[in-house]
Amino acid sequence: MNGATSIVTTRAAMLGLNRRRIGLLAVLAIALVLPYIPPFTGEDYRRWLVGAAFMAAQAVAFDFTAGYINVVNFGFAAFVGLGGYTSGLLAVQLGVPPVIGMVVGAFAAGLVGLLTGALTLRLRGIYAAVMAWFVGLALMGIVRNVPEVTRGSLGLNVPSLLESAGNLPYYYVILGMLVVTFVVLALVIRSRFGLAFRAIGQNLAAARASGINPTRYLVVNFVLSCAFAGWLGGFYAHYYGILSPDVMLTSHTVEVLAVAYIGGRGSLWGAAVVAFPLTIAVELVKVQFSTLPGVHLVLYGILLILVMIFRPGGVAGLVQSAVRWWDGRRRPEVEASTAM
Amino acid sequence: MTAAATNLSRTPFLRRYMTFTGLTLAISAAIMVFEAFAQPSIVVNTLVTGGMWALMAAGLAMVFGVMNIPNFAHGELFLLGSFTAFTVFSPIRSALNDDPSLAWLKAFGPVPGMVIAVFVGAAAGLLLEALLFRPLRRRSREQWVMNTFLLTAGVSVAAVNGYRLTVGNDFHGIPAYWDVPPIDLFGVPVSVDRAVVLGIAIVTIGLFALFLQRTTLGRAIRAVAQDETGAQMAGIDLNRIFLLTMALSCAMAALAGASLLSLFPAHPDVGLQPLYTAWFVVILAGLGNVAGAVVGAFIVALLQNLTIFYVGVGWVDVLPTALIILILLFKPSGLFGSAVKGVWEQ
Amino acid sequence: MNNGRVLDVDGIQAGYDLLQVLWDVSLHVDEGEFVALLGPNGAGKTTTLRTIAGYLTPAEGQVSFRGRVITGAPAHLVSRLGLGYVSESLNLFPAMTVQENLLVGATTVRDKARVAETFDLVFELFPRLRERRDQLAGTLSGGERKMLAIGRGLMGSPSMLLVDEPSLGLAPMATLATFEALKSLRERGVTILLVEQNVNTTLRIVDRAYVLEQGRIVLQGTGEELLHNPHVQAAYLGI
């Protein structure tokens, strides 16, 4: 009786085309053509798109720890900055090409992440969050205090990633980096690691009792997230062409975490998708009130508060419950049609 | 590789290595204290800033101990205190300066600003609990610590930038509350402002300790920290204790901000250093340990003042952080921490 | 009709999330009575007490205490009305001294003389607590901790006490001492509802008892009656 639908669903499954993937591919398609659709054809809008994709990728990497192992990396921006400075300094001092420098930056961030994680992740989550914050503050302090190397607050001029001055090629580069970040982390989540992450995030004691060595998984997760942060930081450095210690400010971490939580923690895609409209909207607000600094941070702060209190699932949670509602409404019809 | 890193703590090698490092740390600590006494100004600065960090950290520790909230917006209460004190004190100061017949009142000029700052801080604490924490608590207490941490991070960012938007990026400060020649303390000239700040810290912490130890309400707060259900069995209304705890903690932070106005002028980012210093202290002392936070505040102040004196102001975040990370290697739950969750007691 | 009815539980249905534990449980306790609620592990005894004490709101049914409906009232208010609760896990304040624990128990009592009086009563019932007065609660032995929990429950001068499994984890001698204390409390006019698994001893000291099985009251009667009830004998007394 249900033969027709089950064959269709199995074939879709064989192609790996479940609804989520179709949805994500559609979003990716939109993201690919977006810079050719007015008003995104303008350089300002394209610059915002680069910023949005950069934010999306950061939020995905952030959500990988916050949403799955329930550890908030409060020094996230510092890891982004560490990757940026590593790559930038390699390029400035030794002439290392940015593409290689970015990978080295990822390793540097991952290494500091390993040290931080190995020391703090066996403690309660809040210790790890605060210690990561301290490490971030210390990193920022170091960058500020060795102007002979980093030029400190004056800012470090970094060679560009691409020859082109336009934003369009950069957009496709960062979009590609977003896709890589998302796919790699989503694959990790789908592996046996993902199951362990969730188990640990939800109940550390129970996970330990069931034979998982939690610290090991926590550290793996944390290091991966930090490494991606460092890699993305390299893009930031070679895109904007100037680095200052302010990249590492805690308020940037809060921006990323606000996007991740508004998108929906523990979903990866929620953060990735929501970053676009959110970043563009914030840029538009900034244009409207250009004399007022920090207006976007007020918005992010208030949105974060509202999400935490009223919609802990974020946008992803809303979409999921909408889908569930839609399925519940439609199922009787489906059964009726197959019965015929 | 990661497994090795995490299992190291169980190997004898690391333990031996850690003992060695521990000894080094202890010797360095002794040298530091000696150095400090060789430089009396360091002692005085440590006492003054340590007293204020103690006000900040004790409140932060209490809120964590009683409500399980790691308050990331604690520095914004410092900002609120300093801005309130500035707003109240400025007109008073000019009035006193304009009218010579009021000169005898000058010594008391700063008092209204500080008192009002305390009340404004307490009111902000009540609002935070009533408008944010209570609704969240009612919805779910799942992952409470992390959720409230993020919630207060949102509050902090919104408050700092809201202040920036409305008040602006300027520094609102005063040269001194008391425009009189410095007094002599241990042979070091100390401004009256700093001496008073130290006095305020000592008196406030003393009163706070007495309140927690000797009064029914103070005992009720400690009871809630140790066992909420047990406290309810004794007829204690948790919601009222939470309100009181937030009000007290925020009032102390605001008082710190108001007292230090001449050293830390009101500015959107003025709460940042007090915030992370208070967090250094609380992590060092053990989360939720109020007495430890008071002691830890002076240790951190000593570290900071030594760093400023011998290394440079810029390193004031870097070196204490490195040391705290080292200390946490040995004592993951903090210097005075233990498994028992509770306020005041270790 | 309500002469001396202290506690009246009427048809409560309660549980946790999707799991219903109590099915139409009704029971009552009269002034000065010593009543036990017996039953095997997982029958819902603790859930019943938690519902009465205000830690759990029943889906249906009503709890009244001295004629006042207290269904869904917050736990601290129930306690202030004079309905004390000594939980199975005791919920002591481990980092406070014995004396401080007792003082917290008297938080809502304004009358200083009254507090001093209850102190004397508690120390009279449990002389060990007087010896351990300045010791931290976290360092007490199991039996002493039970005494302290009951003592703290008494400090609020309740007219009725709910006591959850005081014999749990205690040596026979300590169990006996606890039961003796409860008995002498009853003699002082405190109404008691006791949850127990130790059926034999309990039925010998209480006035009446209810038997709870799988969330339902299956039997009730005086201690004497139940001691001779074939079901009780077979299931609980091993006769």
Structure overview:
The complex is a heterotrimer of chains A (340), B (346) and C (239). Chain A is mostly helical and 340 residues long. Chain A has helices spanning 3-14, 19-33, 43-66, 76-94, 98-120, 125-145, 147-150, 167-190, 192-202, 204-209, 214-240, 250-263, 269-288, 295-310, 314-339; strands at 156-157, 242-243. In chain A, helix 5 packs antiparallel against helix 11. Chain B is 72% helix and 2% strand. Chain B contains 13 helices and 2 strands; from the N terminus they run H-H-H-H-H-H-E-E-H-H-H-H-H-H-H. A two-stranded antiparallel ribbon of chain B has the order 1-2. Mean pLDDT of chain B is 83; it is low at 1-12 and 338-346. Chain C is of the alpha/beta class and 239 residues long. In chain C, strands 6-7-8-3-9-10 form a 6-stranded mixed sheet, with helices on both faces. Chain C has a 4-stranded antiparallel sheet with strand order 2-1-4-5, covered by helices on one side. In chain C, helix 3 runs parallel beside helix 6 (142-155) and helix 4 runs antiparallel to helix 6 (142-155). Chain C is globular and about 45 Å long. Chains A and B meet through helix 5, helix 6, helix 11, helix 12 and helix 14 of A and helix 1, helix 5, helix 6, helix 11 and helix 13 of B.
The gist of it:
Chain A is mainly α and 340 residues long.
Please supply descriptive tags for the structure shown above.
heterotrimer; A: mainly alpha; 1% strand; globular; disordered N terminus; disordered C terminus; C: 239 residues; alpha/beta; 4-stranded antiparallel β-sheet; 10 helices; 38% helix
Which chains make the largest contact?
A: A-B, 55 and 52 residues
Low-confidence spans of chain B: 1-12, 338-346
- How many whole angstroms does the radius of gyration of chain A measure? 21 Å
Task: Please give the number of β-strands of chain A.
Answer: 2
Strand order of the largest sheet of chain A: 1-2
Strand content of chain A is under 5%
Distance between the termini of chain B: 36 Å
